[in-house]
TrEMBL record:
Membrane association type: Multi-pass membrane protein
Chain ranges passing through the membrane: 25-46, 58-76
Any single Pfam family the record assigns to this protein: Frag1
InterPro entries the record matches: CWH43_N (IPR019402), DRAM/TMEM150_Autophagy_Mod (IPR050911)
Compartment list: Endomembrane system
Species, as recorded: Characodon lateralis
Alphabetical keyword list: Membrane, Transmembrane, Transmembrane helix
Protein name: CWH43-like N-terminal domain-containing protein
Family: Belongs to the DRAM/TMEM150 family.
Amino acid sequence: MLFVCLQSALTYRLAKTQGEYYLAHLRLCMTLLAFVGLVLSGVFFCQESFILQHASAIFEWVFCVIIMLFYGTFAFEFASMSGDTMAVLARGRSMGPAGRELKLDTLVGMGGQSHQPETMSIL
């Protein structure tokens, strides 16, 4: 729930277009529904009645389905990533120390400031 709440807040914070605001509203609704389902699941689970414990299990499944749908909303954000983008990102990670030094030399040659290779790996 903490991740879902944080992600909903970040979606609102970073939204620039109307479509992104619609997605933020959708995520907020899903977050609220998931929270209500989780609370009801916990409340009903503590009861002695078999029917209420059964309702608790149903609310637990509702919570899980809503969270999976929430994760599905990330498809809209990552839809523009192509296979070429993934290949470039994967190749950049596998260059090792020599690749970092090459990137460092390129940055210094472009007028950037001189940094140690360890600090460049953070970027």
